[in-house]
Design brief:
By secondary structure, the chain is of the alpha/beta class. It has helices spanning about 1-20, 25-40, 50-65, 70-80, 140-145, 155-160, 170-175, 265-280, 300-310, 330-340, 405, 410-420, 430-440, 440-455, 465-475, 480-490, 495-510, 515-525, 530-550; strands at about 105-110, 115-120, 130-135, 135-140, 185-190, 195-200, 210, 215, 220-225, 240-245, 250-255, 285-290, 320-325, 345-350, 360-365, 375-380, 395-400. It is built from 19 helices and 17 strands.
């Protein structure tokens, strides 16, 4: 026992000594090392932040380090790395030389608020409660304060991968949510219409056991979901991908939650089996669910894409659907990019958590003095032209979960697909309307546009904006066609001041002053509220009146 005690004292002293060696000067040396490394080896990361702005952040942090506690310094490095705003360029806390704790709960932002989705069994009574505040700070403010520590490619990345930052006491203190480093927290919660405070200690025990971002059952953690039934998107988690045939709905459903080969069946073999099944069975719709897919190997996407292109049975508008979500990231982003490029896919669910074009494939860089690992991306993945880049792939049909949907095993995303039975559906409504114009079927085009503008199947199209945009593009090059689309907008949206103002502008520019006068008067008859269209109509009517007096 005496020898054991001596050994413990030695180990404790060594640990304390290692922490004492991390002086402010050594942290500053690490910061300079990181700064040089980025400038010399990763200057291409200066895309969303300039080199100048990055250096300014570094200098501000450098000066502040001597007045910081060790955990604040680590979080400071996290802010520096997060400033590049690429999810693959990151820094975690698990390998920090300074121990980090966590509050044993898991947050999830549902359509109706931020809820405690799961918790350690010791705190199971608060599962399903909505978060109102942490230590008296409103949750909306806490989210705002913590956000700079997360490499936010977009808002979805925060929802899918960044909310766990709210569970680190060290982060909450460093970001000003709490005034000091706490080991116990007061959460203000709301459950069953009752608001209450709940005290919860932090811990160094393992985080919630997760797979694909979902809680693994049979552990010391609990959630509120009814476990007597499992919805399709949570089935067969022992497999990376699986498919199921819904004979009544004539749908083949695939859950694909990593871009990797399953140990029992390669991606290519799996999809060959799926496509063969589709060919020999009465299948009307095909669904690939990648809402939980955090990526993997981009080069495994090819057989999926080419297989769908070749399968004319399902590669048709209204027959092929892909479910996306806040965890659709990395190689999964590349997959949906390519499907968008080359197939007749309809996206349903939430936006993805990755930029359309992005930096991925990081390298680990160890800061020499502290041993703190950071991960810097080096590979640029570009599936679309630069001018088509965006924060995410936006679903044609946005659908979100409520907390009640989750606990009762409802899947409103899949239900949207099940209920989708369009007649004469076209992926490109404006192309179809233009074709009708070319065929001299203007009245049919008006009827079709009015029908589609009211049809849920086309809810992904902002018809008023798209029709007007097309008209303005044509104006000056093909005035006859431009005027048709301006007039079409007024037929579909007769109570919109903007459509009449746009038509009046086009009529003025093409010399139809009487028509322009009638259109601008229509604007004023619809409303007299001082809107931009209202002001424009008055100004143009004065021009027309002056022209008539000459």
């Amino acid at each position: 026992m005496k020898n054991v005690s001596v050994l413990l004292i030695v180990l404790f002293s060594a640990t304390m000594g290692a922490q004492e060696q991390l002086t402010s000067e050594k942290w500053q040396e690490d910061l300079r090392f990181l700064q040089r490394t980025v400038h010399e080896k990763y200057p291409f990361l200066f895309k969303k932040i300039t080199a100048k702005a990055f250096d300014e952040k570094v200098e501000e942090f450098y000066v502040a380090i001597p007045n910081m506690q060790a955990h604040e310094v680590v979080v400071g490095f996290s802010r520096i790395i997060a400033s590049f705003k690429y999810g693959h360029t990151r820094m975690g806390y698990s390998k920090s030389p300074v121990p980090f704790h966590h509050i044993p709960i898991d947050f999830y932002e549902f359509k109706d608020g931020l809820f405690i989705k799961s918790a350690h069994k010791d705190h199971g009574t608060i599962v399903g409660a909505k978060i109102v505040a942490i230590e008296g700070v409103k949750i909306s403010k806490a989210l705002q304060l913590v956000a700079p520590t997360v490499p936010l490619e977009n808002e979805q990345f925060y929802k899918g991968y960044g909310l766990n930052h709210l569970t680190f006491p060290e982060v909450l203190h460093a970001q000003g949510v709490t005034d000091s480093l706490l080991d116990s927290f007061t959460l203000t919660l709301e459950k069953d219409g009752i608001q209450f405070d709940y005290s919860i200690p932090s811990t160094t025990k393992p985080d919630a056991p997760m797979k694909y971002g979902e809680l693994i059952t049979g552990t010391d953690w609990v959630d509120g979901r009814d476990r007597s039934f499992t919805p399709y998107y949570l089935k067969n988690f022992d497999k990376i991908y699986y498919f199921e045939f819904l004979p009544k709905e004539k749908i083949v459903y695939v859950r694909h939650s990593r871009i990797r080969n399953d140990e029992n069946e390669k991606v290519e073999d799996f999809y060959n089996r799926v496509f063969k099944f589709i060919e020999v069975n009465d299948v009307e719709k095909f669904v690939i669910d990648v809402r939980l897919n955090g990526g993997g190997n981009n080069f495994l996407n090819k057989p999926i894409i080419t297989g769908i292109i070749a399968n004319t049975k399902i590669n048709q508008p209204g027959r092929f659907f892909v479910i996306t979500g806040r965890r659709t990231f990395s190689a999964a982003q590349s997959l949906i990019n390519e499907l968008d490029n080359y197939t007749n896919v309809l996206f349903v669910g939430e936006p993805s958590s990755e930029n359309i074009n992005f930096y991925g494939d990081n390298k680990r860089v160890i800061l020499p003095k502290s041993g703190l690992p950071v991960y810097l991306s080096f590979a640029w993945w570009q599936d679309k032209p630069q001018w088509e880049n965006a924060d995410f792939i936006k679903p044609h049909y946005p659908v979100e979960f409520t907390y009640n949907d989750y606990v009762t095993n409802q899947d409103p995303v899949l239900k949207t697909i099940l209920d989708f039975y369009p007649t004469n559906f076209t992926m490109e409504p404006l192309v179809y309307l233009n074709q009708l114009f070319e065929e001299g079927k203007s009245k049919k085009a008006i009827t079709a546009a009015q029908r589609m503008a009211k049809d849920y199947a086309y809810s992904f199209i902002d018809f008023e904006r798209e029709i007007s945009n097309k008209a303005f593009i044509l104006l000056g090059n093909d005035n006859e066609r431009a005027l048709f689309f301006f007039e079409l907008a007024t037929e579909v949206f007769p109570k919109s001041q903007n459509t009449w103002a746009n038509l009046g502008q086009a009529q003025w520019e093409t010399g139809n002053f009487e028509g322009a006068k009638n259109s601008f008067e229509k604007v004023l008859n619809l409303s007299n509220d001082g809107s931009a269209a209202d002001v424009k109509a008055r100004r143009m009517l004065q021009k027309i009146e002056a022209k008539e007096k000459k």
